[in-house]
Amino acid sequence: ETGVTQTPRHLVMGMTNKKSLKCEQHLGHNAMYWYKQSAKKPLELMFVYNFKEQTENNSVPSRFSPECPNSSHLFLHLHTLQPEDSALYLCASSQDRGGANVLTFGAGSRLTVL
Amino acid sequence: GQQVMQIPQYQHVQEGEDFTTYCNSSTTLSNIQWYKQRPGGHPVFLIQLVKSGEVKKQKRLTFQFGEAKKNSSLHITATQTTDVGTYFCAGGGYNKLIFGAGTRLAVHP
Question: What is the reported pLDDT for A2?
Answer without folding.
Answer: 58
